[in-house]
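Changelog note: in this version the structure field was regenerated for every chain. One regenerated record is shown below for reference.
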Amino acid sequence: MLPELAIGLVVATGGAVLGYYYRKRIAEGKISSAEEAAKKIVEEAEKQAEASKREALLEAKEEIHKLRSDIDRESRERRSEAQRIERRLQQKEENLEKKSESLDTREEAINKRLRELNKKQEQVESLYNKQLNELERISGFTREQAKEHLIESVEKEITHEIAVKYREIDARYKEEAEKNAKKTIALAIQKYAADHVAESTVSVVALPNDEMKGRIIGREGRNIRTLETATGIDLIIDDTPEAVILSGFDPIRREIARIALEKLIVDGRIHPARIEEMVDKAKKEVDTQIRDVGEQAVFDVGLHGVHHEIVKLLGRLKYRTSYGQNVLNHSIEVAHLAGIMAAELDADVRLAKRAGLLHDIGKAVDHEVEGSHSQIGADLAKRYRENPDVIHAIAAHHGDIDAMTIEAVLVQAADAISAARPGARRETLEAYIKRLEKLEEIANSFAGVEKSFAIQAGREIRIMVKPEKVNDDEAVLMARDIVKVVEKDLDYPGQIKINVIRETRAVDYAK
């Protein structure tokens, strides 16, 4: 068993050795073939690299040659351009030299001309001085005197031209403005006409007989005292047959007293208790009348949404007068006139009517509240949430503030038309005389005025000027200046005509 095993081991060992050498021989053969292949690859790579190198060198040389060609061409072009520029500069330089020579020639000619002109100017100045001296000798005026005389004559001429131009412009614009204004106002007045009943601060109550006077006075005057205390009105019982006069500043109280007294006369029972009862009834009746009259006024004008307190204030205006003109009727008239003029001018008719109706609302309470009736009215309208434009028109209708809307201007115009039309108002004699005196005083304050006369109830003033002190042109300017002063310092209804008269009279006597 062991020999076989040894033999097998030897055989196996020998096979392994033989196999090892066989594989070694094969591996060496492969290595040598691989080395040869690698050498071939390296040689081919070296050949390819050499070829690429030669190709790159060739391309680089071609690129260098191309760049050199481009650079040479560009250099030639630049040299050519530089040569052209140089030729142009040389040409310009030659032209400048020619112009310089021409300018030198002209300068020399001009200098020569200037020298000649200086000589001639000296000759002219010499002649001018000789002529001036001769003129001064002939005219008898020095240079300064002649200058003053010339300035004076020019001033007169300019003043004349200004006056003529002013007359032309003033006449043209006045004609156009008056034509349009008269058309609008005349149309408004024609479309609306109202009659006013002149009321005063007294009321007269008719009595059935004179015996009623004693009953009204009562025992020891208790009835009349009760009636005066309850109404705040003075009862005047005099020798006037069958009449009792009620006197008081408050027209509403006077109306209450009149109604109460008439009811007492009809009833026949006149005693303190009955008087107080009738006065209460009269107050309620007057309050109802005030509300009804206010509502009727709003309805007549065609307004809506008027606060009920304003309606009451409008009703109170029925019992208020201004220079004898009923204030409620005046307010209604102003509303209609303002609305008509607003329609003609394409303004807000409803706003103009509303402002016109409420413009004198402050007169309903102006004896109870401090301030002008326009400001009081504006405050009342603001309190009852009226339109801001209506409030502005109320505040501006007497010029206390500047009118900023066309409706406010129309209310001013309508108020003036209603108040200034003939028969609308009464004026006290004292106020009338004061206005005439003030008008004449303004005219007499101007230099050159000899006399002045206010005529036609203060609607015109004729001013006589001294002809030796005021010429025709200055008379035109004086009329305009007087108009400005009158408009600024004088309050008046309507318009006043300023008539400046200048006349020259030649007087001689035959002996």
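Spot check on this record: The longest strand covers residues 449-455. The beta strands are 202-206, 234-236, 243-247, 321-322, 325-326, 449-455, 460-465, 497-501.
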